[in-house]
């Protein structure tokens, strides 16, 4: 009987590394040899993770990959949480890559739809972040991972700093399963400020021709917050944060939640809620949180990623943020998403469409955007055990074994910025499923997980509804003059209000006339800088005020 | 319109088609005069841009404009573009002398417009959903009778605008198949090259990098809607952040600006060549 080798993967990896010994100096490969490197260590059909996080992009390696010879390297199975750069898709046009498993593709959503429709690309699945990370350890174990670091020392130790994001979860999946870990480095140094990834896990380092791409995605200029958003924020604070005694929270990235952040130190203070609600946050370090931090509302913040311009402010607030001994923040998207599932009372987000049943999606016609963080944050983990007042407030009275629920709140204006109704009978996502031949309709947050919808009309307490018909009626009642909303009538509305299923501003003691911009703790970027004692440094594109 | 266009280009049109471009409002009532006039103006603009060593990363034409786009991207020669457009305009003029045209609806989604079109479209009064100029700006094409009925329904559905356009032909609809057939025969014998830059195709809104796709677009352009809105989405996703519109107008610059307010735009109609050169060089330096 022939003896089976139990080290075939290890041997294959050793052989690959041996084959590039001529361009390898320790762990280092010269910038100009990057293409040669990729052609030598990637095999056709390999599973390759290209680090495209929500914020950080391994842009040097992603620009190098399209330059390889498609005769040598083809049919790759790409695994990317975020598809955001043009070349991420160019490699499918040239045949270098064939299949894609991903989470978010907002910045390339038109092209990705076209490529699926014409067969240029095969899609595995559109995942939530946690699903994608989890599968790296089960049935999508990568052969090669291409990641980005700020600084690398001679031993290959990585400093990934504030934008550590997905680097640890990606690298670990390859490093311990004979995958090859290739890192692009902004800078090679003698000693890294701190070790975010041990050099032992890293095989190859290439100095990048320029620093990796990083965009300030979560900066919202208070100047653009409208009075309608302020009204909705006031309703949410009274009718949800206060009512359910919410302690732990994640906010989405829109202006609605930015408004709430800026109302806590003013309106929240007036209501006497300081010290009573939302001390603990899982959220990116958005500048609009600065006034709430400075006025003592926020006690802790853990973050998925960093935010350009917030570095120095964070360095001076280590009691609030997760900061290393070196003084810079450490982020981790995998842990952040886990926190969203299991440690938070509430998620508050926004969407482009909500159907008459309460399902929501940001996938609209011709645009397969995927969803980023919202589906994990905006779903109820039914296996949760630990109890909080907010979670308990959903526990049914009549079921001895009943359990609580996470609050999942959608905040939308009834008409979007493009004047299209947000409330629709059918989501565009249903069409997109057919066009792109997807197994599931790309719904971002399911109706069954959605506990509240807030609009400029009022709040629908969906969790209080007993039937789908009643749920639809509650949605209609807050859907304004959209086709869905026009089905509501005064009698139905009065009944829903009487039973506490729908609340209008007056039911919550919120006066529409008070919803003024002057109620915001900061009205522009300059105010945010002042609140931060000059520690916040807004990126150039937000500096028109100066 | 053509006062600045170089004489050899105008002479070229005369040589290749026998058409003398008289360049006055009356002549431009004629489909052949207006199509050749616009083409020759755009060919002149392309020569101007080449003279200041500017080359595009991507080209996008709208309907007739695809021929200038094909010249700018090196797919077809000036001469062949002129001859092809001459045949295209001749054939368009003959096809539907009366009773056909186009309409525009603003404020409804394409899906919304298509539902109305489906209610009305019949063999007797054909009407089709046509060009998508922006998300909420859809053109319909077909019989005047069918178009008017769809426009009436659109107004009932509270469209902001629903108007008949001054176009005498049901362009960008299946009714134009006979023109496509003639162009197919015509282009079968013409030497074409792979585009030197990305070509954004009218017929499906895709970024095209090979000659077959551009050829298909030049032949079948009039049969399909112009997916202008999708073309712009794709351009932006490809990293394009600057647009330059050739003459005669600035319609497409307005569409780009309202879709992408951060885009840097140039209209050749409103700007001198040396100013254009200065701006483009400045933006390249960053």
From TrEMBL, chain A:
<dbReference type="InterPro" id="IPR005777">
    <property type="entry name" value="MadA"/>
</dbReference>
<dbReference type="GO" id="GO:0016740">
    <property type="term" value="F:transferase activity"/>
</dbReference>
<dbReference type="Pfam" id="PF16957">
    <property type="entry name" value="Mal_decarbox_Al"/>
</dbReference>
<protein>
    <submittedName>
        <fullName>Malonate decarboxylase subunit alpha</fullName>
    </submittedName>
</protein>
<dbReference type="InterPro" id="IPR037171">
    <property type="entry name" value="NagB/RpiA_transferase-like"/>
</dbReference>
From TrEMBL, chain B:
<dbReference type="GO" id="GO:0004314">
    <property type="term" value="F:[acyl-carrier-protein] S-malonyltransferase activity"/>
</dbReference>
<dbReference type="InterPro" id="IPR016035">
    <property type="entry name" value="Acyl_Trfase/lysoPLipase"/>
</dbReference>
<feature type="domain" description="Malonyl-CoA:ACP transacylase (MAT)">
    <location>
        <begin position="5"/>
        <end position="270"/>
    </location>
</feature>
<keyword id="KW-0808">Transferase</keyword>
<dbReference type="GO" id="GO:0006633">
    <property type="term" value="P:fatty acid biosynthetic process"/>
</dbReference>
<dbReference type="InterPro" id="IPR014043">
    <property type="entry name" value="Acyl_transferase_dom"/>
</dbReference>
<dbReference type="InterPro" id="IPR050858">
    <property type="entry name" value="Mal-CoA-ACP_Trans/PKS_FabD"/>
</dbReference>
<dbReference type="InterPro" id="IPR016036">
    <property type="entry name" value="Malonyl_transacylase_ACP-bd"/>
</dbReference>
<keyword id="KW-0012">Acyltransferase</keyword>
<dbReference type="GO" id="GO:0005829">
    <property type="term" value="C:cytosol"/>
</dbReference>
<dbReference type="Pfam" id="PF00698">
    <property type="entry name" value="Acyl_transf_1"/>
</dbReference>
<protein>
    <recommendedName>
        <fullName>[acyl-carrier-protein] S-malonyltransferase</fullName>
        <ecNumber>2.3.1.39</ecNumber>
    </recommendedName>
</protein>
<dbReference type="InterPro" id="IPR001227">
    <property type="entry name" value="Ac_transferase_dom_sf"/>
</dbReference>
